[in-house]
Design goal:
The protein has a single domain, classed as 2-Layer Sandwich (Alpha-Beta Plaits). It is 28% helix and 29% strand. The chain has four helices and five strands; from the N terminus they run βαααββαββ. The chain is elongated and about 55 Å long.
Length: 158
């Protein structure tokens, strides 16, 4: 079981010790989408959603979420989240969300970027559910990362 870094020699979960690793600049980008009805797309475009500015609320929710990952994922390290960007765009079938998280620390920020996207998506669903009970979160994934021992990675085109 030693090939799994989050398991000890007995197969029990453990937090990997990164004390000896040198901090490096690391960045990760994640994307996702909230699929909504045409009625909600129209209301988002003309800013007439009853709960207010959906995209602003979702952006702030995503930024806040990126900083809470160690509270949510038991084996995640507490790291310095030094930058978070959450962009939302209304498109014909919903809302596209992209988050980029950066740090200069001992471990990567892929989970922080993915958490930012998914929580921003949850905020969109929460804000539009009164008009679209069928709103759904789809296609959440890490699309790129840079830095660290494993270097740079970009998801191949879907």
């Amino acid at each position: 079981m030693s090939e799994f870094t989050h398991l000890d020699e007995r197969g029990q979960a453990r937090m990997v010790d990164v004390t000896a690793k040198q901090p490096t600049v690391r960045r990760a980008t994640a994307r996702g989408r909230v699929a909504v009805s045409a009625e909600v797309v129209a209301a988002l475009r003309d800013e007439s959603m009853p709960k207010g500015d959906v995209l602003a609320v979702a952006r702030i929710a995503g930024i806040a979420a990126a900083k809470k990952v160690p509270d949510l994922l038991p084996l995640a390290h507490v790291i310095g989240v030094h930058g978070v960007r959450v962009d939302l765009e209304v498109v014909d079938d919903g809302v596209l969300i992209e988050a980029e998280v950066s740090t200069a620390d001992r471990t990567g920020v892929e989970m922080e970027a993915l958490t930012a996207v998914t929580v921003a998506a949850l905020a969109v669903v929460d804000m539009v559910k009164g008009r679209d009970r069928g709103a759904r979160i789809v296609d959440c994934r890490v699309v790129a990362k840079s830095g660290g021992r494993s270097g740079d990675w970009t998801r191949p085109a879907d």
